[in-house]
Structure formats: C-alpha cells, structure tokens
Amino acid sequence: QSMGCVNSKTNEGIPAIEAEPKQNDVTASQNVDFMGNIVFLQKVPLLQRLPPEFIPVVAAALEPVNKKNDEMVIRQGDVGHEFYIIQSGKADVLVDSEGFKQKVASLGPGDYFGENALLHEEPRSATIKAVGSLRLLMLTSKKFQDLGLRSKLQFAKRKAVGGLGPAVAPR
Question: pTM of the predicted model, to two decimals?
Fold first, then answer.
C-alpha cells in the first residue's frame, strides 16, 4: 500500500479526529449565518440608528427561530418576553375582536413585533401566524435590557404590529 492509503476493512491507520472536520463545518456555518445576520440587520430600518459597531453585538444576541405554515409565533393576550424581527417569509397579524380573529396586517422581511412586551411588559396585542415558511431572529427581554436597547432604539408608536409607516422617526 502507498503511504496515504488506509485499509477500509480494518480501519487501521485512521486517526481519532474524525469529528473535528464536522465541528469546523458547524463553526464555519455559524460564521456564515452570523455574517449574513449582520448584513441583514444593517438593512432593518429600526436598527439603522444604532452605531455600526453595535450591529454585531445585536447579531450575537439574536437567536434564530423557524416556524412552519400556519404556526403561531405569539398569541394575543399572552405575556411576552421576546422581540422578533422577520428575516425571511411572511406572517399575518391577527387581532381578536369580539371572538373573531381579524387579519389587520401582513409582515415581511425587516418587519418586527413584540416590542411592547419588552418596553412596557404589556400582554401581546395581536396574534402572529406564519404564512408559509418563516425565519425569525428573536431577542429575549433579558438580552434587550443587557444591551441597553431601550435607550438606543426608537420604536414607532402603534397599537398592533404591522408595517404601519416608518419603523423609526425621521432624523
């Protein structure tokens, strides 16, 4: 046998580091996701007032969440501790009025929801459901506070969620 060959029947000569390339692949994949999140977050109107050097800090604090078609993200009336930014896909905003769920808005990439739970500890003002496959970036209230985002972000005043005008006040 030549020096680079291994007898596959006996596994002789195989080093005990087979798991390492997989770990490196995971790390590389996480780096690609992280860099992609930074590029995405730089385009989200809500976050454009942050200093550019703060975007990677926010990106590191976000957790990816995936939802399937018709899956609920948040339910109106529930106590919430998470804020979401839609990375890809669409979601419907449903408000329960006198026992009927009424669609009041549709959300897409760059839209956000759940800020009232973080800012005012209010119950959820609407139900958000995935329309098709939905990828979200989620920030917990603890990370939101730890990062001091309450004083760094300017949220639009709105009753329920939706693409109801600019996400930040004009400069």
Answer: 0.71
What's at 163, amino acid-wise? G
C-alpha 106/C-alpha 142 separation (Å) is 28
Residue 156: predicted pLDDT: 65
Q: Which two tokens stand for residue 95?
A: 């408000």
**Measured distance CA(41)–CA(49) in Å, rounded:** 11
DSSP string, 41-76: HHT-GGGTTS-GGGHHHHHHH-EEEEE-TT-EEE-T
- Tell me the C-alpha to C-alpha distance, in Å, between residue 69 and each of 33, 36, 40, 112, 160: 23, 24, 23, 18, 21
Per-residue b/e over 63-80, b at no fewer than 16 CB within 10 Å?
A: eeeebeeeeebbebeeeb
Instruction: Give the residue carrying structure tokens 């989200």.
Output: 44
Residue range 99-137, pLDDT digits in tens:
888 999 999 999 999 888 777 788 899 999 999 999 999
Residues whose CB falls within 8 Å of the CB of residue 127, separated by 6 or more in sequence, listed in order: 72, 74, 75, 76, 93, 94, 95, 96, 101
Q: How far apart are CA 98 and CA 104, in angstroms?
A: 15
